[in-house]
Amino acid sequence: MKITLYFTIFCLALGSCKLSTDNATQPSEQFFEYDAIDYYQTNVDDIEVIGAYRNRSKSELDSFKSGIILRNIPDSISDLAFIDKLEAVGFKKSIVDESLFQSIDTIFMEKSCSGKVEYACSHFYRDVLIFKKGTKVIGTAKICFSCKAHQIKGTKAHTSLFGQDGDYKTLEKILEPLTKE
Predict the structure, then answer these.
(1) Which residues pair with 113 in a beta bridge?
(2) Are 112 and 18 in contact, with CB atoms under 8 Å apart?
(3) What percent of the chain has pLDDT over 70?
(4) Mean per-residue pLDDT for 41-60?
(5) Half-sphere exposure of 36 toward its Cβ, with a 13 Å CA cutoff?
(6) What average pLDDT does the segment 24-40 reach?
(7) Cα–Cα distance, 117 to 86 (Å, whole number)
(8) pLDDT tier at 57, thresholds 50, 70, 90
(9) In this predicted model, what pLDDT tens digit does every residue of 118-176 receive, in sequence order?
């Protein structure tokens, strides 16, 4: 009975999201104005993540890996030193093709939603997007596709409703070919 109730609530909340269309009261705002996106992804398994967390006080790299995947690294948009270490802890870098930007723009924008769906699980941020304008990093987005969680830095837009209405699944499909390169 509980499962049926939770499933019904989940479906109703998921179906109630939409792009903001009333520009007079709530303009849709893009999270970032960018001209390049670097995508970092790791296939680290849960046991490896837990091992890095347990060993975070033993090794600087394990501490960093734990901070990226489980905690709040970076803690602000000015904290960009982490980018240089991503590949050292097992993240693979890909460049997102410009032909995908329009699809990505529809995901990384303010939206309105009458209900917010949240998941209760441990967030393992295995996907990191670095948004750039010229050579300057203007935004970061850490994504946990399994828990539907995110940490987005560098925008003044409201990001709390990011990923609603199937956007996590859409973003995952957009990025999927890059994980196979």
Answers:
(1) 17
(2) yes
(3) 76
(4) 77
(5) 9
(6) 80
(7) 30
(8) low
(9) 666 778 899 999 999 999 999 999 999 988 899 999 998 888 888 877 889 999 999 99
What is the reported pLDDT for 1?
Answer: 39
Can you give the three-state secondary structure of the chain, one letter per residue? CHHHHHHHHHHHHHHCEEECCCCCCCCCCECCCCCEEEEEECCCCHHHHHHHHHCCCCCHHHHHHHHHHCCCCCCCCCCCHHHHHCHHHCCEEEECCHHHHHHHHCCCECEEECCCCCCCCCCCCCEEEEEEECCEEEEEEEEECCCCEEEEECCCCCCCCCCCCCHHHHHHHHHHHHHCC
pTM greater than 0.85: no
How far apart are alpha carbons 131 and 138 in whole angstroms? 6
Lateral strand order in the sheet of 92-95: 92-95, 36-41, 127-133, 136-144, 149-153
At 137, the amino acid letter reads V
Which residue is associated with the tokens 């995947």? 69
Dihedrals φ, ψ of 173, to 5°? -65, -40
